[in-house]
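Researcher: Next sequence.
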Amino acid sequence: MHHKEDSSYFYVRVPARVLGCLCAGEITIILFPGHGLVLTKPIQTYLIPENLRMPNSEFDVLFKHPGRKMIRILRHNEFCPEIDASHE
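Model: Next structure:
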């Protein structure tokens, strides 16, 4: 039973780019930049490392599905145990 619960969700690493500040305390990012599909999402500023908050900064966002829950921000080459460990 426990194994079934573990397989009911999965993680997705989505490329993102900072668009700019929406309002105090939030930064708007573009998901899947450069793919002709523009999805914007406001994110609390404190969730993004300081050196990645400038416009056009690029990074990845880790989401948990179902539910599209944002887990954390990752640098492009940063190891992600939820995804990368299963590929070793």
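Model: The longest strand covers residues 10-23. Residues 18 and 56 are 5 Å apart (CA to CA).
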